[in-house]
Automatic annotation (TrEMBL):
Residues 3-233 form the ABC transporter domain. InterPro entries: ABC_transporter-like_ATP-bd, P-loop_NTPase. Keywords: ATP-binding, Nucleotide-binding. This is ABC transporter ATP-binding protein.
């Protein structure tokens, strides 16, 4: 196990920021920590990095406790924080090279790694620019470069893609997947459910410092009763017909708005057939049909009763 957190409790006076939190991050995974603002993500990140003391529990990195002088462990960790953490007085090249030199003493090796990282993130055209001249997307790519230049085997990312333009977003997402393919373990903190769904192989959902669900995307989706969401274009529907649809076997909810009928069905066979049979029997004309499997949004909604985006 790369990271093992057991029964972690962290309080700020009366606020319980982490409430007996458990987490296991396996080698080679992109493990997403998903939760709304205030759910404890930053506190957890800081505890794992040894930046914050905690009240109870334990954190092991490669089966060892992180101490001040655990240089062997620290060398293998790369961190990309959400806030800006580069030097304004250094150029893009100098920044990356500086962060590399914190881990690597051989000057030639520093040069090689810096060049390689610049190329990896597509930053070749911006090496002489100072951070103030960089767009938000380029700045995020620079921060990312500074965090990975020493080739860590564990990478901790806090909202690494947030606030970037589509080009930088794609570049960063591709780099994250490429690093995973090369064997890097990644712990990915975010409140963006789509990013987590797209990139992460395992997910921990947090709410109020507690783990509310943990597993692969498929495991999380299997935890909830929602099987599929069926959307149909229906030109007119009576309230009494909508009520009958809501009472069809396996249907857990149905709404009709703007000529669109949205039916949520629990897991089971023939949900769509049953619905279409009813519409045909009632001679209710319909157009397009879209069926969707549950998303992580649905998982969060069913477990907590509210949307993550709220
Ligand atoms: N230094 C602090 N003093 C007091 N309370 C704090 C402190 N830092 C965090 N908290 C509280 O602890 C809880 C968890 O906060 P934390 O910042 O870890 O959550 P988060 O998920 O990272 O949120 P965000 O995405 O907004 O940073 C919140 O209730 C927050 O108000």
């Amino acid at each position: 196990m790369v990271i093992e957190v057991k029964n972690l409790v962290k309080r700020y006076d009366k606020i319980i920021a982490l409430d007996y939190l458990e987490l296991k991050v396996k080698e080679g995974q992109i493990h997403g920590i998903l939760g709304p603002a205030g759910s404890g993500k930053t506190t957890l990140l800081e505890c794992i990095l040894g930046l914050k003391k905690y009240d109870k529990g334990s954190i092991l990195l490669w089966d060892k406790k992180l101490e001040k002088d655990s240089y062997d462990i620290k060398r293998n960790i790369g961190v990309v924080l959400a806030e800006e953490a580069v030097f304004e007085e250094l150029t893009l090249y100098e920044n990356i090279s500086y962060f590399c030199s914190l881990y690597e003493t051989d000057k030639q090796k520093v040069k090689e790694l810096t060049r390689e990282t610049i190329e990896f993130l597509g930053l070749e055209d911006f090496v002489r620019l100072y951070p103030k001249k960089l767009s938000q997307g380029l700045l995020k790519r620079l921060q990312f470069a500074c965090g990975i230049v020493h080739k860590p085997t564990l990478l901790i990312l806090d909202e690494p893609i947030d606030g970037t333009d589509p080009h930088s977003r794609k570049k960063l997402a591709d780099c994250i997947i490429e690093l995973k393919n090369r064997g890097t373990t990644i712990l990915y903190f975010s409140q963006n459910i789509d990013e987590i769904e797209q990139l992460c192989t395992e997910i921990t959902m947090l709410e109020k410092g507690r783990v509310i669900a943990q597993g692969t995307k498929e495991e999380l989706k299997n935890m909830i009763s929602l099987g599929e969401k069926i959307t149909l274009e229906v030109y007119s529907l009576l309230e009494s017909q909508l009520q009958i649809i809501r009472e069809l076997p396996n249907v857990s909810g149905a709404e009709y708005d703007n000529q669109m009928l949205v039916v949520k069905a629990k897991k089971g066979r023939n949900n769509l057939v049953m619905l279409l049979d009813y519409l045909q029997e009632q001679k209710i004309p319909f157009g397009r049909i879209i069926t969707e499997m549950p998303t992580l949004d649905d998982v969060y909604l069913e477990i907590t009763g509210k949307e993550l985006k709220d």
